[in-house]
Design brief:
The chain is α+β, with helices and mostly antiparallel strands and 302 residues long. Helices cover 42% and strands 17% of the residues. α2 packs antiparallel against α3.
């Protein structure tokens, strides 16, 4: 196994195994992102995702909370966890994103898979490793990269099997090394920015409840007028729109991952008026809830 601490990388290199209609799915995406295409609002996936930053620094938002990440940091995201990356101005940022899913009871050991995947469920699922630990993890990923980049790689069933087994090895190594994590959030914000991000994190944790500008202002000891102004200045959303976006994103996920009635989903995500919910959903998602469910989550373009 390679012990080099550097992750092999070539822009636009990718590995695709199956697609989302299959029980087992992998997508390794070696790519660049820049400030111009930063996401406006946090999004979700119905699969697991891992981001490894290969450039100097960036910000990653997880359920309303911004985290400062540095080169070689690993961000782990469970299905449904709202998140977005925010890259700095300047040269594009290199990163590797690995999306995957597989039946966790494939070998009749669902509890074992639950443990192996537990690092994805950490309160702060960001991992930073030094020296030997990083070399072990990146060595496994480099073996996958080298294999996929070799002339003999065809994407055959046996090739797929190799990548699947090596990635299981990576997940096991990550699990065993999780207690070696040295990540500490060193994001720098002034007092009002910190308070606003405390409020966005609170919204993500309590979106199912009755939330209002006045209630949040009282809870966080800030005037409602000042909160409204600063919230828009920092997040680029007015507060009630942010609450609605958070609720709708969670509704969307439940629409495509459960068979629950739409009205029940809306109520469970904090909407008290079904007619208001339908109007807001169509405005944000571009179609009705029933059409969104039928589409499997594919939004209309344009």
């Amino acid at each position: 196994m390679q012990s080099d601490e550097s992750l092999l990388y070539e822009n636009k290199h990718f590995i695709i195994i199956n697609d989302l209609n299959n029980n087992t799915f992998y997508y390794f995406d070696y790519d660049e992102r820049d400030y111009a295409i930063n996401m406006e609002f946090e999004h979700y996936h119905s699969f697991y995702e891992m981001l490894i930053l290969l450039s100097e620094e960036a910000e990653h938002f997880i359920e309303g909370h911004p985290y400062h990440i540095r080169q070689n940091d690993i961000v782990l995201l469970q299905p449904s966890r709202l998140h977005k990356s925010s890259y700095p101005k300047g040269d594009p940022s290199r990163r590797l994103v690995i999306s995957f899913m597989f039946p966790e009871d494939k070998y009749g050991i669902p509890e074992t898979y639950k443990k192996i995947l537990s690092p994805f469920g950490a309160d702060v699922p960001i991992y930073r490793f030094d020296g030997t630990e990083r070399g072990k993890l990146f060595g496994i990923l480099n073996e996958i990269y080298s294999f996929s980049d070799s002339p003999s790689y065809t994407g055959s069933e046996t090739d797929t099997f190799y990548i699947h087994m090596k990635f299981q090895e990576f997940l096991h190594a990550l699990y065993t090394l999780a207690d070696k994590n040295t990540y500490k959030d060193d994001a720098s914000f002034n007092s009002i920015e910190r308070k606003i991000y405390d409020i966005t994190a609170y919204i993500h944790a309590h979106y199912t409840e009755d939330l209002s500008l006045e209630m949040l202002a009282d809870m966080f000891f800030i005037s409602s007028c000042y909160l409204s102004h600063q919230f828009k200045a920092i997040t680029h959303f007015n507060l009630m729109t942010y609450i609605q976006m958070t609720r709708i994103r969670n509704v969307e996920y439940r629409l495509i991952t459960t068979d629950n009635r739409i009205s029940d989903i809306a109520e469970s995500c904090g909407f008290t008026s079904f007619s208001q919910f339908n109007r807001i959903f169509k405005k944000i998602s571009g179609m009705s809830p029933s059409d969104f469910r039928k589409s499997g989550g594919a939004r209309k373009k344009g």
